[in-house]
Amino acid sequence: MSDAESSDEFEPVEVFPEAESGGMDLRSGADDCYKCSTCDSECPVAAVDDDFPGPKFQGPEQWRLKRKSDQDIDDSVMNCSNCMRCDSACPSDVPLSQMHNTARGTFVENQMAKLSREYIRNRILSNYGTLAWVGSKVPRLTNFLMSNSVVQEVNEKVMGITAEREFPEFAEQTFREWWSERDGANVESDEKRVAYFHGCYSNYNTPEVGKAMVRVFESFGYEVMVPPQKCSGTPMFANGMLPDARRAAETNVAELSAAIEDGADVIASCTSCSLSLRQEYPELFDLDGIEDVSAHTYEALEYLRIHEDLSGALEESEVDSERFAYHAPCHARNQGLAGQAIELLDRVEGAEAEDVGDSCSGISGTYGWKEEKYDTSMKIGAEMFHHMEDAEPDAGMTECPTCAMQMEHGTGYEVRHPLQVMEDALVD
Amino acid sequence: MAIEDDVLVIGGGLAGATAAIVAARGGARTRLVTHKENTLRNASGLVDVLGYHGSDEPIVEPFEAIPDLPDEHPYRTVGVDAVRESLALFDELTEGLYEGGHTDVNALSPTYGGRIKPTSRYPTSAAAGLASRAEDTLLVGFEVVTGFDAPLAAERLDASVPFDVRGVTVRFPGEFRADARVTRLAKALDADELLDRENRTGTREALADLVAEHLGDAERVGFPALLGDHDPGAVRETLEAELGVPVFEVPMGPPSLPGMRLEDRLEEALDAEGVRVESGNPAVDYTEDEGRITSVSIDRGRRETPYHADQVVLATGGLVGKGIDSDREGISEPVFDCHVPQPEERYEWFHDHVFDDQPFARFGMDTDDSLRPLDSEGEPEFSNLRAAGAVLGGYDLAREKSGSGVSLATGLVAGRNASEDLTTQ
């Protein structure tokens, strides 16, 4: 870093003049890689898939290769699950996931047939929000259909969506429907205001997480706003659907910027949503206000921990005795939040939480839903399943909705969000 | 004040972990923040105290040599007793994983380059390979592990030790990529993956069969350090039973399995002492009040989060760990902007010959006796900041082979002083 900053004494040689014409110049990032291979040894996909060349190749090495215009992107980039553990592994701050995201975007745009089953399947999966919007109109019918084994079989054969997994159930009332029925915020405040980015999953599938967020923040005197919003983009990045992600980002950045203008900070309950707004947005898109949204976005408990005496409040709280096996999602790890839930739960009388280790759950959003990736996904998850069973909990716990699916799928335990326990502890 | 602790340790390597464990044992509520995966996995896993000083001859007894070191050396600051005490702590924390605590004399461990390194503690997995055991040795390398050229290492070793050393390169059993990671190979041995389902031949047995052909009169066999990740003892046992001779690991460069095993052990110890560990974000700034640090700012992307603490330990590493930074203007300590003594003229940072005694290798902070960094006037920069490990100046860890020992000893003293100085108790 210091080398680049101190380059004012001489003119650097222009190695990649085409970067001037608007392309993303990641050369300094590629040059920061000194090939220690820490990323490769931390990559959960490489650990179980001998054919996967690993993040060092997908990132800096492939990035250099693709500077040559006749060089295709290696199709193995689609086997990266976008868990982004390489980012937190790298001792040299190489922007690995940014390189993977741009390479995957280029691959999908230039090398993937738009009528192929894989493209269509990935497009559908990465636009889960749209799928869920339709499904949640008739939740009972959708739930019935999606749990039907014939439908699952057809999904696998025709679409390449694994029949092994139970499709997540749609709530009969979405979070947003609840919010408008409730008439919005119960607390008004000019000083303490947050805009809730609920994401697709809390809205359509687990509105109880969103309700817990609202009630916990209101108990600390915050006015909660719920601006219009689209998908955070996480599944789109993972599938290389950058134009879709950009369209969603335009709406999100405009709406969240307006909320920030009104004095709010942005809060997410899903750690992939908060990571996307904080890191991937400014890394991949150049939109008005995007840096500001990044700087004002927090994970829900992170925010309370910084701005309120959350630990103190929890010291005086109590819940019905329950033992949790907690899994820190990779995307929470990336934001430095891996130890937070355990630290907070330790203070709640009655709640007991055990960390089930630092392995990846393996599902990585849409990744584990793909028929050809299902086995890899379950192999990655095996270590976590094993630790969960050893912990003999009453329930599992995590912030990430798809990690929760994987935990339930692999162990049968019901899984809760830390906010739900906070709600039990802090809200009368 | 939301995130608040008694002691905040910045840095997750050997120095930071030691400081945090000692502070927590002293009764302090302790938090350790570390930017990335720590650098232990880039280190060989050998734990040295002092290998060389003033000559090319390796030091036999490091503790006896410490009083001869210059005044500004961190060992002189903390004293021999603290060095001994920190090694006793290390022995306790790494029981079963490390050996060497039975003697004050340096052990001589072969390196992957075929040299001999004086070291105080060595992984149990490397014990059978020590040069002090005059036993004929076979070194085995793998085509896929390009970082270890066994015939070359053997040739070099053979020229400097009083026993025969031969080297051979074999294929690693099983189907792997041409550039397979050492962690992948370690896992195959850990799990003893079945290569031949009909005859139920596992990776370990297949490896032993390959090596047996080359064994000859060798009284021990050395492999690059990849004999298992979680259960290296079991992998060695199987190989020893099959081959009928002791088996050892030769410490390697990154990613280093012995380094990762040590990292895991330290993580367990931190957890057992109740230290809160957070990784993923760097410390970048601070607030102060009348010469006391009141909070440390942790960079979370595009904003900073304050971490409040009564006492702070800085263990961010040296030039490699980025605890010490440099540009064309000078050398600096980036978090607290502590004074780093340096020549005015940049051409005095180095000597022309690469292997000369280089001034830049000694760059780092100067401290008082309680390890508080000093400003250019020789006064403590802050009353509640201490420094440990490679961020300290006055020694050349690569030349002296003293990196681990300085980290352990200064980590222990910094952690203890921090917990004893708490104003909150």
UniProtKB/TrEMBL annotation, chain A:
This is Anaerobic glycerol-3-phosphate dehydrogenase subunit C. Residues 1-26 are annotated as: Disordered. Its EC number is 1.1.5.3. Residues 1-12 have a biased composition (Acidic residues). Transmembrane segments: none annotated. One of its GO terms (molecular function) is metal ion binding. Keywords: 4Fe-4S, Iron, Iron-sulfur, Metal-binding, Oxidoreductase, Repeat. Residues 69-102 form the 4Fe-4S ferredoxin-type domain. It comes from the Archaea. Pfam families: CCG, Fer4_8.
UniProtKB/TrEMBL annotation, chain B:
Transmembrane segments: none annotated. Keywords: Flavoprotein, FMN, Oxidoreductase. Residues 6-406 form the FAD-dependent oxidoreductase 2 FAD-binding domain. The keyword Iron does not apply. It comes from the Archaea. GO terms for molecular function: glycerol-3-phosphate dehydrogenase (quinone) activity. Gene3D superfamilies: FAD/NAD(P)-binding domain. The keyword Oxidoreductase applies. Its EC number is 1.1.5.3. This is Glycerol-3-phosphate dehydrogenase subunit GlpB. It comes from Halalkalicoccus tibetensis.
